[in-house]
């Protein structure tokens, strides 16, 4: 431990800094630096030459649109990923972090967006389980004494004897943070820590963490997209955009508009695409006061109203977790609405298979291999999921495999699906070719009336993106009503006729694409 007031060292067991001139030294968090970090996945560069400094005893917010590189950066810091190049420094010393265990040795802990506790075990059992040791025998009397002493000094109180299944969402999030404090982490990385909390719970949790930071007991790096929370609790920000450093600064010196501009970049004008004019557009999809809950029972879609007309692409922008996924699942029949109704072609629509066929509704869902395909089934079988029980692919209860294969061969050629054969399991294809398979199935039908597309190009290469965009615009030009939900603002500005922003389950902005105000879109997406 350091003897002089102006000298700091790294404690090899937990990365903490000992500051002081005598044995009464106070343990403070170390300084964490990310220096010129790059991470590539094959030919894709997720992070390029990014640097950032988390100063001791500060709360530093990491901002950026979805796909900006935030999660890649923190996973490199935590040792989940090995960076292609760059360094991690703690108090100026290069410290290789090859695993989460290494990160813990340096006093770095992470609270993930999704809960990691074991539901059937108690709070006490989960806290003990979180420790990085090799104990084969647990002395529960001793452990409970230590846990009660820890809870007396902890910023949150969660009953030790309750099982995780008995806890509310706010208590579960508090427990995730308590785990890291129990492990004596001095640098805490929080990944969207309030995404499962009500506004009141969010303010309570961040307020108590802020007290620990202000007292010099903790440093926090927080991934967030909520400007309200950043303005209230953060000291500094670093902004990433498309894998690159886009700016930083002290929160007290920045306005929300300046932060939004860093996040979004310079104003991007809509890219021209060839669109046909339609003389008499008719309402196809009418969403009327729709409400829906998240998986944890909290309301996430809060009375949405929207009409999409024939020959129109309506784009919904928003940062992940604001209700767009749940809205698409309601429209696709994968989640029940808790209120309101949906009309298609003027009739009440409940998203059954029969109604989808009757009204010619087709869906390009997010994560197509999970939500739109059966991975172990062949490409031909997946292409026939809409039509296998109808002539010419079926005769009564018998499937006509020759007809299924002939249709598949034609679609593989038309949509340029790269597959060794129609019999190849669709799970063996690349992401772009899985999406082409779904696109072929959903867009090859006759007389399509409504297309619902959710992040249709996520993770695909440029060639696949251009192809899917061209197919969506072609459908629109044929008179199809298109609802395009995307976290890629460039995609929405390129394809949409009209754009809306969803924030905390409600529409916060709406405009024809030609009159869209870029700065307002950015602020609305960030919930301000």
Describe this structure in words.
The protein is α/β, with parallel strands linked by helices and about 525 residues long. It has 3 domains: about 60-80 and about 95-265, P-loop containing nucleotide triphosphate hydrolases (Rossmann fold, 3-Layer(aba) Sandwich); about 270-360 and about 450-528, P-loop containing nucleotide triphosphate hydrolases (Rossmann fold, 3-Layer(aba) Sandwich), CATH 3.40.50; about 370-445, no CATH class. It contains 17 helices and 24 strands. The strands form 6 sheets. It has a 6-stranded mixed beta sheet with strand order 8-9-10-5-11-12, with helices on both faces. The longest helix has 16 residues, at about 200-215. Mean pLDDT is about 85; it is low at about 1-25.
């Amino acid at each position: 431990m350091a003897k002089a007031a102006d000298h700091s060292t790294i404690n090899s067991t937990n990365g903490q800094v000992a500051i002081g001139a005598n044995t009464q030294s106070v343990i403070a968090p170390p300084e964490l630096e990310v220096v010129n970090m790059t991470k590539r996945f094959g030919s894709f560069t997720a992070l390029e030459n990014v640097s950032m400094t988390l100063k001791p005893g500060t709360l530093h917010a990491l901002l950026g649109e979805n796909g900006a590189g935030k999660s890649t950066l923190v996973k490199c810091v935590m040792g989940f990923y090995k960076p292609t190049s760059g360094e991690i420094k703690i108090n100026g010393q290069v410290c290789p972090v090859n695993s989460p265990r290494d990160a813990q040795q340096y006093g770095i802990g992470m609270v993930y967006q999704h809960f990691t506790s074991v539901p059937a075990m108690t709070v006490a059992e989960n806290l003990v389980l979180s420790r990085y040791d090799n104990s084969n025998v647990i002395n529960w009397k001793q452990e409970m004494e230590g846990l009660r002493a820890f809870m007396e000094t902890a910023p949150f109180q969660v009953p030790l004897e309750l099982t995780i299944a008995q806890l509310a969402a706010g208590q579960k999030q508090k427990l995730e943070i308590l785990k890291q404090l129990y492990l004596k982490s001095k640098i805490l990385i929080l990944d969207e820590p309030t995404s499962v909390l009500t506004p009141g719970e969010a303010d309570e949790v961040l307020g108590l963490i802020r007290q620990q930071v202000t007292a010099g007991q903790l440093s926090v790096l927080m991934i967030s997209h909520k400007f309200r929370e950043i303005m209230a609790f953060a000291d500094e920000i670093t902004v990433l955009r498309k894998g690159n450093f886009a700016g930083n600064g002290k929160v007290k010196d920045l306005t929300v508009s300046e932060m939004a501009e860093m996040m979004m970049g310079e104003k991007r004008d809509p890219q021209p695409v060839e669109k046909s004019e339609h003389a008499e557009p008719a309402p196809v999809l009418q969403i009327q006061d729709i409400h829906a809950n998240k998986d944890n029972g909290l309301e996430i879609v809060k009375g949405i109203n929207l009409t999409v007309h024939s020959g129109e692409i309506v784009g919904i922008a928003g940062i992940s977790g604001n209700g767009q996924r749940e809205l698409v699942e309601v429209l696709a029949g994968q989640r029940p609405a808790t209120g309101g109704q949906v009309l298609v072609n003027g009739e009440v629509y409940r998203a059954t298979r029969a109604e989808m066929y009757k009204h010619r509704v087709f869906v390009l869902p997010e994560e197509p291999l999970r939500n739109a395909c059966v991975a172990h089934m062949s490409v031909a079988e997946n292409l026939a999921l809409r039509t296998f029980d109808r002539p010419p692919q079926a005769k009564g209860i018998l499937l006509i495999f020759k007809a299924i294969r002939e249709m598949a061969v034609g679609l593989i050629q038309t949509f340029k699906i790269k597959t060794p054969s129609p019999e190849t399991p669709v799970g063996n294809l690349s992401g772009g070719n899985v999406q082409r398979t779904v696109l072929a199935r959903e867009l090859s039908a006759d007389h399509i009336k409504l297309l619902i597309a959710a992040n249709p190009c996520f993770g695909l290469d440029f060639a696949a993106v251009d192809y899917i965009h061209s197919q969506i615009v072609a459908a629109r030009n044929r008179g199809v009503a298109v609802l395009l939900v995307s976290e890629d603002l460039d995609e929405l500005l390129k394809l949409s006729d009209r754009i809306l922003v969803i924030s905390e389950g409600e529409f916060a902005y709406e405009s024809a694409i030609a009159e869209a105000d870029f700065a307002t879109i950015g602020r609305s997406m960030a919930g301000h």
